[in-house]
Amino acid sequence: MTEPIMTDTWTGTSMTLSGGVRQTVTAAEVVSEVARIPHGLLLTMRTTVWGYDRPEEFADRENLRKRIGAGEPLYYRLRFYQPGVVRIELLDAEGLATEKRNFFLAELTPLDFTVSAEDEFAVDIAFGDFRFHIEKGTRGRGYFRFSVLDADGNCHFETENQDDGMVLFNYPPGKRTDQATGASWFRESIALRPEEKIYGFGEKFHPLDKRNRDVRIWQTDAAGCLRDAAYKNIPFFLSSRRYGALFNSPRAMRFEVGSQDCSSIGADVFDDRVDYVLMPAHDLQSVLRDYAALTGQPTLPPRWSFGLWMSKCTYSSETELDEVVGKFREYDLPLTTMHIDTGWFDVIWLCDWQFNSERFPDPAAMVKRYRDDGLRISLWQLPYVNAGGAAHRNPAFDEGRDGGYFALDDAGEIYVARDQAKDTPLEGVIDFFNPTARRWYQSKIRALLEMGISAIKTDFGESAPCKAHYQHIDGADMHNLYPRLYNEAVWEVFQEGYAQQPITWARSATVGCQTMPVHWGGDPSALWPHLAGSLWGALSFGLSGGLFWSCDIGGFGGARQPDEELYTRWLQFGAFNSHMRVHGNMEREPWKFGETALAVFRKFTKLRYRLLPYLLSEAQYAVETMRPMMCAMPLAFPDDPICEGIGDQYMFGRALLIAPLLTAGGTRRVYLPAGTWFDFWSKEKISGGRYIN
Prior knowledge:
The protein is α+β, with helices and mostly antiparallel strands. Helix content is 21%, strand content 26%. Strands 1, 2, 3, 4, 5, 11, 12, 13, 14, 15, 16, 17, 18 and 19 form a 14-stranded antiparallel sheet that branches. Strands 26-25-22-21-20-29 form a 6-stranded parallel sheet, covered by helices on one side. Helix 6 runs parallel beside helix 7 (475-498) and helix 9 runs parallel beside helix 10. The protein is globular and about 80 Å long.
């Protein structure tokens, strides 16, 4: 199978052939045969080959879609597993002959199922609390359909495959081939009802409901919190119809969520099959528990991590750290962790995992001194080992080059990638599938943990070049999978006994990230829209299985400091993240923003520390139930239809409703679900089921 065109920034398809057919689709249309296989059924699909062209270049619809003829059969493989899920694969004969390498799913336990009815038109399969209905397409309609129903007959899920003869650009499920390149991939089409909401896909910086959007699954240094580009792309979504779908491939994907056809979700998987696990359930919380059962149970972060983290890019000496800690004591401000970002090496940003000996003369003694004072130290690093320049050569680069630890280009030389956001070179991309390289990297982390470092910031991880060569894995698989391998390498060292409860501070993530907390929302600019984007990203991440999340209070980037109002509003929001960290590329210490900001900082950090028993209790509950600590309203109040569309407020644990101020001015509207509420500040009793200002 020829792969689609790949780039380090996005995987897509060429559409450059002039005239005639540009893409062919082998469309699965009718179930011609049903056979029993271990744990499920194999459906043989009769197909038709259609040719498609770009609609904007043609005035008459006859040129948009052309019937070419009958195609080779395709297959749906349905297998049923605990705790009541269906694994669905759409593939061709070549795919059927090979078992795809599994990167995401835990070992699956078969689930008993019963073919309860079958005739020439349909098949019914009972599994768990649900029924899988197969309409073969032989009843005169001419197209198959799958649906999943509960005991009351409510339909939770159905595929979409229809053609009324007038549809010009219908995208049926099947195999697609680009005629210019020969690249082929697979597409599934899932029905989307008019009232249905779709959530998830990772940390996405736009409103919660992804309807009418094209969603890409491709790890990217997003350089902010406003675009479709995202650091944490997770091929998993939730539907308000009470099901979830996890697409089991690390390859690039594109989901047209009602954007091209308002009645369907078109899922393009740039792989040799579509492979997804369908999780019907009685509520969305149960879907998330099933997701964890399939991809890994969540982990509880250490107790100390729920205190305040103070950082900027960057503190560069022990003396500077002492000055900041002294100011915190002087101004009566709580503090738990000091983070040192890119400034602890000989050359800022040139990561060699070694402290500069002049600015940090005895780092082990420094770490012990802070620990004795009740403070923790966290360190930044990254998985790309640049060589440095003439003035300072990075010894870690030479080690990695000589040991063969880095990704290679076609000529066998070290692959030089480009940072997707800054367009700067990224040399020495560590190959985490190379066991020797993995051990070498872990030796660097181990040395830091041995001196008492409490947390490792696993920055970056989104730019592994898909055209590079790695050991034991194709680059097209490696790109999206890289964040998981990178964070696992650090996590494994913590598990050697350096911490009772490990913690990483990760920017990038993929499927299963709930097993290795904590994650933060990347690099928002110090602007109001990025504050709103950060909130949307947090809640979207929570609806994708992420339980613990933080942000850069004050915003990370930009050419200027946040003003006092933006700084304090971001602080107030950050106080009600699962983890609270102040960070930015300029000064972020509260006394630098005026007396009002300092007073607000003191009030909200002290409030957070008073709430620590509540936070720790809710964190434990999150791990037990897969309910994120920052819980989106549709998940917290599943029976309230108004909450389905609310994405600018959330439940922080089970008792606190948080409504951040996301624009300058100081007022906003808040929705209170039905029940009795109390204003946290005034203790006023308020009846719910309405909006208040």
